[in-house]
């Protein structure tokens, strides 16, 4: 059934596990996430970005997730709006059946310009008001995502990738986080502690201090009842990059967030771990391999099945690693 994100995150907090939140855009991604969850008995968070709704169309996306609910009646499923760019976007997501919304007020509605703190408080408060009235959970975001290796802000975070940032600018401020949650009453808070969106997070293999775990501990200690969210949490598996390159792809050397770092963050209040890039890489690797190995085949079901299987393997490994396996 569709469940509330708040309930699911509360359960995760009580039992000390984390949940991967996978982005979905099409049928095979929904199937991969669901088949994986069924196999290891994990609850599911599926999330759709504005881009996903543009790609599939609102009705197709909604019915795909509703189909998952119908096909897997025993698995708790959250349908979440990822990076809502305005209260209006969140409102329309709720009207189309989402049980959880993210109001990303760290950015202006253009989705690329960093917003100031007062704006973020104001729009988040507004979304909390109408969402909580109908039992919908609200995730907010405070801070500028960016890599502590390159000291560059996430391109999607409005600062522009050109400028070099200070460490402090790339970390969520704990005093501000406390004030933000008190004012907005959001259920979950996405924080900046060194992750960033996309495949190009780090230029060298991370050594273990790539996330600001001390900062995470401090925020969690001061906001023990706020579920923390980590965006940009793909691990960018080197085996998938190797397959993509072997079968004709061209992706430069790059590294993601090691799964062990994600596991460490779960110990300090991170409950929702956003993953999009790893599914993209898994599907692309499988499709490239399938088509190169079977040059005469042209039935999309064949290469899309291969893509689904590779995505499913990745989903299973995250459910197991984060401890949501066995919790459905
Ligand atoms: O946070 C961004 C997600 O990876 C969604 O990406 O906007 O290309 O759908 P998208
Ligand atoms: P990745 O690009 O690391 O998969 O992050 C996805 C994300 O944060 C979606 O909101
Ligand atoms: Na941000
Ligand atoms: Zn994100």
TrEMBL record:
Annotated pathway: Carbohydrate degradation; glycolysis; D-glyceraldehyde 3-phosphate and glycerone phosphate from D-glucose: step 4/4
Pfam families named in the record: F_bP_aldolase
Catalysis: reaction(s): beta-D-fructose 1,6-bisphosphate = D-glyceraldehyde 3-phosphate + dihydroxyacetone phosphate
EC number: 4.1.2.13
Entry keywords, A to Z: Glycolysis, Lyase, Metal-binding, Zinc
Keyword rRNA-binding: no
The protein's name in its UniProt record: Fructose-1,6-bisphosphate aldolase
Lineage, highest ranks first: Bacteria, Pseudomonadati, Pseudomonadota, Betaproteobacteria, Burkholderiales
Binding positions (Zn(2+) 2): 104, 141
Name of the coding gene: fba
């Amino acid at each position: 059934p569709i469940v509330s994100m708040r309930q699911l995150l509360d359960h995760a907090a009580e039992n000390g596990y984390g949940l991967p939140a996978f982005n979905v855009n099409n049928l095979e991604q929904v199937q991969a996430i669901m088949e994986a969850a069924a196999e290891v008995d994990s609850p599911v968070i599926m999330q759709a970005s504005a881009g996903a709704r543009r790609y599939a169309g609102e009705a197709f996306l909604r019915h795909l997730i509703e189909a998952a609910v119908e096909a897997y009646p025993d698995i708790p499923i959250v349908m979440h709006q990822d990076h809502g760019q305005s209260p209006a976007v969140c409102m329309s997501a709720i009207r189309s059946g989402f049980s959880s919304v993210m109001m990303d007020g760290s950015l202006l509605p253009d989705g690329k310009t960093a917003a100031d703190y007062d704006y973020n408080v104001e729009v988040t408060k507004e979304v909390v008001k109408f969402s909580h009235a109908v039992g919908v959970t609200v995730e907010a975001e405070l801070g500028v995502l960016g890599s502590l290796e390159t000291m560059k802000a996430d391109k999607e975070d409005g600062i522009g990738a050109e400028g070099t940032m200070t460490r402090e600018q790339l970390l969520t401020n704990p005093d501000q986080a406390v004030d933000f949650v008190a004012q907005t009453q959001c259920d979950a808070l996405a924080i900046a502690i060194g992750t960033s969106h996309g495949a190009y997070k780090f230029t060298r293999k991370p050594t273990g201090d790539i996330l600001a775990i001390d900062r995470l501990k401090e925020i969690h200690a001061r906001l023990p009842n706020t579920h923390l969210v980590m965006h940009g949490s793909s691990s960018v598996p080197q085996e998938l990059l190797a397959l993509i390159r072997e079968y004709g792809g061209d992706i430069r050397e790059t590294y993601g967030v090691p799964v062990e770092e994600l596991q460490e963050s779960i110990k300090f209040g991170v409950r929702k771990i956003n993953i999009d890039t790893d599914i993209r890489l898994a599907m692309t690797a499988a499709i490239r391999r399938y088509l190169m190995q079977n040059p005469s085949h042209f039935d999309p079901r064949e290469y899309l099945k291969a893509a689904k299987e590779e995505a499913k393997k990745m989903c299973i490994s995250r459910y197991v690693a984060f401890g949501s396996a066995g919790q459905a």
